[in-house]
Amino acid sequence: MNTMLRKSVLGIAGLAFTGGVFAGPIAAHAAEPVNSTKPVAVAVQADKPDSTKLIPHGVQGAQSKIDLNDEQLANAKAIIAATKKAGLPERAAVISIATSLQESKLENLGHLGDKNDHDSLGLFQQRPSSGWGTPEQITDPEYSTLAFLKGLKQVDGWQDMPLTEAAQTVQVSAYPDAYAQWEQQAADIVAHNWNS
């Protein structure tokens, strides 16, 4: 937390305490011993995740970025919520969001007819025929994220791998290096939404 915010929070807490002592009922304070050590609760804003946790290896290669609409942002937040539900750290959310940015641009895609890549569906373009789940499950953002994370947890050492290697090991894409271009935007999304 920066120094200015910390001083402001502590100053407000001090004013509230002092105001209560001088303006509050004297009888309430008379019953307490002079050396009372009651804990004082101070509201503190949670800091954003540390960038070294989000991008431990630095970004790899040129980065891409797209503007997100409300639906795409809601899908990113669903990925973050599912990551927390799985008990995984912020880095797993960065890998998941970068993967979804590459696979679907964070859009929960249904069957696209002739444009479809085989029977790939949802945020991660997972395939029912490959055992990812039913079409209904795969197009549920929480389910598809938890399925992706289950695959990620099975990758030995995923926490220490470059993003594109971890994502590719789960996804087995025809374009294995494409995930890296989304790392910065994914990290920015996680940094902004992890504690919200």
In short:
With 196 residues, the protein is an all-alpha fold. The protein has helices spanning 3-23, 26-30, 51-54, 70-85, 90-104, 135-138, 141-153, 163-171, 183-193.
Question: Would you kindly provide a written description of the structure presented here, covering whatever features stand out?
Answer:
- The protein contains nine helices and no strands.
- The protein is an all-alpha fold.
- The longest helix is centred in the first third of the chain and has 21 residues, at about 5-25.
- The radius of gyration is 23 Å and the shape is globular.
- The protein starts with a helix and ends with a helix.
- The relative contact order is 0.16.
- Mean pLDDT is about 80; it is low at about 1-45.
Task: Compile the SSE list and pairings.
Elements: H1 3-23, H2 26-30, H3 51-54, H4 70-85, H5 90-104, H6 135-138, H7 141-153, H8 163-171, H9 183-193
Range of helix content: 40-55%
What is the helix/strand order? HHHHHHHHH
**Structural class computed from helices and strand pairing:** mainly alpha
How large a portion of the residues is in β-strands, by DSSP E?
A: under 5%
Number of strands: 0
Gross morphology is globular
Taking pLDDT < 50 over at least 5 consecutive residues as the criterion, the unreliable ranges are 1-45
Mean pLDDT across all amino acids = 79
Number of helices: 9
Alpha carbon gap, first and last residue:
16 Å
Radius of gyration, in Å, reads: 23 Å
- Major sheet characteristics: none
